[in-house]
Amino acid sequence: MPIRPIPESHIRRAVVDDIAALVDIENASFPGNRLDRRRFRYLLTQANAVTLVDVADDAEGDAIRGYLLLLLRADSSVARVYSVATHPAHLGTGAAARLVTAAERCAGARQCAALRLEIREDNAASLALFRTRGYAVFGRHAAYYHDGMAALRLQKPLA
Asked: In whole angstroms, what is the distance from residue 73 CA to residue 104 CA?
């Protein structure tokens, strides 16, 4: 079987019309603590947040491969990656790495000094992605997730 090339992609801000795709990615990626349509709508339209999507440019249309939700606070120089997910059908395409790069640029453009996030202690793939990008563990939350798993807190200073 020939190897299919990975289609090119671009990163853009999510819009309300993307909510169904965002919920599909969320449901396919997480067993619990999922964002629903209502929460995505709020985050896209009212919250001080930016949701970025990795969109595949291919013959099948502009499929959203993954998303990253970045929370910003007016009174803080630290931005927070609230959620990042790649649809299981698009794992290994580099979508998460592209989204993290875009989030770092977005936070830097808003004069944020650092980017933080929490990752499941047992999520080796995500930990590797962020550690290789310069994120360092600075704390731990015990029993952070719905199933009792701990979360590691990571941070990266932004230039």
From this structure: 15
